Amino acid sequence: MRSTLRLCANLLVVLVVLLPLFYALSIALMPSSEVFTTDLNLIPK
What we know:
Layout: H1 2-29, H2 32-35
Protein name: Sugar permease
């Protein structure tokens, strides 16, 4: 039980840390015409 809670806490921390990094990487790979649109494009076209 204790190891399961620790695993869930670690996964939550990993998601909180990695999601903004993946978002920043996807923004960096977008063409400049897509960066300033109001559409939410997480994956560059």
